[in-house]
């Protein structure tokens, strides 16, 4: 069997790099929107999709499309529709394809939801990040807690399939405060939550502020305690974890696009700085588009390199351990050329970090906190 490739899912990721305001924790390839002309970039994205069709003549119709960023909700509905039309014309969209849009509350509140739905969006990922006004100010967000609640309410009236993002483990955040905020968010009724611990990256505004001593990031042990609390609260409210940071009411609400990443399927990455993984003639290719929008508009095709078998296998292992469905040991052996070390698996089981069920190795809740470390233990070289 093939261990990676489009049989495990085929998606399209569209990176829109502009934001009305750049958040101080953000480490993505983003730029201030200002009064930039967006149509040349939209056309470059469309051309990029069409170029990929030429390079991927044997690939099937798309399982998913994901507008990410940046703030892709700054795109007009017409621009979204044009991009989706290019995807449909180039590859086709499966009848039940998941079409996701990341959106900021302020863009929801301006009344664009019905237009997005008409353009083809059928899943919304709403970046509220917090319901607390003080926390939102700290995180550099340009909406209030009341705005966030109103945006969720409006979203539910248009999209049954929607998700809410929160950032926790903020400096000074107590377990009691987080439990209350998470419970309040769950009461809003979203069928999917993406819950991320605040990560301080060195080159971000937060990274510079932390280096100056303006604030002290939360200690790892305290973050771990909040992670455990998060699992307990979500489980009790009927949204168990299906991946390290993601929770869903039912399988139907799980992110099919993200499952492509975790399963090591194929995905096209278009837009400035977008990454892709493509399987062509048995070779695994990593693609990366030009980062600066102006360079991307001028570029003829993304840069790409062929991943070695070792790189492919290691990447597969790191991603496959994240979802609760776990690591398929048959695929592990196909990629690494040797079976998983039974002694390592036994030790992980004894430490209650993982459990084996037939051909699947699944991390426990404690194990998911150490996913990267466990992956390093399982690598056979």
Provide an overview of this structure.
It is a single chain. The protein folds into two domains: 6-259, Alpha-Beta Barrel (TIM Barrel), CATH 3.20.20; 309-381, Arc Repressor Mutant, subunit A. It is 41% helix and 23% strand. The protein is built from 16 helices and 17 strands. The protein has a nine-stranded mixed β-sheet, sandwiched between helices. Helix 1 runs parallel beside helix 2 (77-90) and helix 2 (77-90) runs parallel beside helix 4 (113-119). The longest helix is centred in the N-terminal third of the chain and has 17 residues, at 39-55. It is globular, with a radius of gyration of 21 Å. The two termini are 23 Å apart.
């Amino acid at each position: 069997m093939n261990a990676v490739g489009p049989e495990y899912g085929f998606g399209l990721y569209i990176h829109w790099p502009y934001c009305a305001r750049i958040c101080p924790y953000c480490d993505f390839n983003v730029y201030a929107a200002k009064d930039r002309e967006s149509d040349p970039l939209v056309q470059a994205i469309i051309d990029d999709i069409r170029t990929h069709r030429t390079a991927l003549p044997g690939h099937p119709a798309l399982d998913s499309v994901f507008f990410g960023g940046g703030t892709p909700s700054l795109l007009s509905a017409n621009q979204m529709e044009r991009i989706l039309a290019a995807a449909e014309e180039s590859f086709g969209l499966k009848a039940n394809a998941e079409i996701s849009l990341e959106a900021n509350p302020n863009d929801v509140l301006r009344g664009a939801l019905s237009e997005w739905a008409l353009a083809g969006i059928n899943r919304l990922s709403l970046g509220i990040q917090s319901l607390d006004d003080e926390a939102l100010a700290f995180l550099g967000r340009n909406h209030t807690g009341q705005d966030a609640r109103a945006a969720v309410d409006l979203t539910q009236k248009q999209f049954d399939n929607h998700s809410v993002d929160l950032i926790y483990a903020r400096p000074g955040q107590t377990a009691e405060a987080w439990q209350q905020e998470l419970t309040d968010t769950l009461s809003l009724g979203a069928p999917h939550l993406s819950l991320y611990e605040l990560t301080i990256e060195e080159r971000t505004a937060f990274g510079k502020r932390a280096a100056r001593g303006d604030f002290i990031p939360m200690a790892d042990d305290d973050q771990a305690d909040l992670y455990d609390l998060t699992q307990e609260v979500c489980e009790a409210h009927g949204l168990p974890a299906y991946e390290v940071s993601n929770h869903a009411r039912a399988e139907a609400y799980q992110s099919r696009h993200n499952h492509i990443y975790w399963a090591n399927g194929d995905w096209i990455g278009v837009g400035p700085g977008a990454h892709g993984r493509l399987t062509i003639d048995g070779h695994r290719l990593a693609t990366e588009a030009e980062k600066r929008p102006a360079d991307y508009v001028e570029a003829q095709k993304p840069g790409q390199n062929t991943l070695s078998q070792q790189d492919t296998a290691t990447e597969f292992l790191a991603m496959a351990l994240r979802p609760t469905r776990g690591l398929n040991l048959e695929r592990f052996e196909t990629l690494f050329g040797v079976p998983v070390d039974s002694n390592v698996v036994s030790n992980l089981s004894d430490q209650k970090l993982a459990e084996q069920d037939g051909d699947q190795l699944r991390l426990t809740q404690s194990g998911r906190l150490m996913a990267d470390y466990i992956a390093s233990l399982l690598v056979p070289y």
